[in-house]
# Entry
Amino acid sequence: MRDAGLSLPRNDPRQYDELADEWWRPDGVFAMLHWLAEARAMLVPPATRPGAILVDLGCGAGLMAPHLVGKGYRHIGVDLTRSALTQAADHGVTVVNGDAMAVPLADGCADVVTAGELLEHVPDWRVTVAQACRLLRPGGLLVVDTLNDTALSRLVAVRIAERLPTVPRGIHDPRLFVDDRELVAECARHGVDLRVHGVRPGVPGLLRWLVRRARGRATAPGQAPRIVPTGSTAVLYQGRGVRDG
# Structure
């Protein structure tokens, strides 16, 4: 497997094309994105009306799709990377090739908008938040997860994580990390009362996964680490909020 982060600048979108065959490998470099997708989907309740729409901003290869089955949404995925969208479509996602800072969808079209591991990758996260809130119908739900703009986050998510097999090298530019208090305030400006809490991979499950991977053992269903709550938002955090109705 090529290490795109050694040949391309940090946070360069071309990395996702070079790593296209990694998306659906449960033990690949995008493994943690699988764990986060499951955790994000757990914050999404079943649809309350026929024809409900969930817009998945920065959907990648559609990793949330298996965890939304049976919840009653039409899953629309928006992403810049065509190679990822091809795979998302294969998993039942209605794909839109577009920029999360200028989403080509109508105001108020979505019952749910998710933005998982996206805000720390866009040039201006505030513009993306405005787009996400614009897409929500009154009473609609916003679900996000991202990395905090702290020294601890830069240490854990870049210096440490990029030396582990769970995060590709160079995938993050720490200058783009998002302060949780600023995110809450920005969502409030757009009528969304966002509540945030810290999360992390469960340590015992992560250690077991790393040992199995080092020994060349595949991860069986139910063996992947789970994302669990933590008392601090200083590194990785989730947010869930409802738009004013």
The chain has a mean pLDDT of 95.
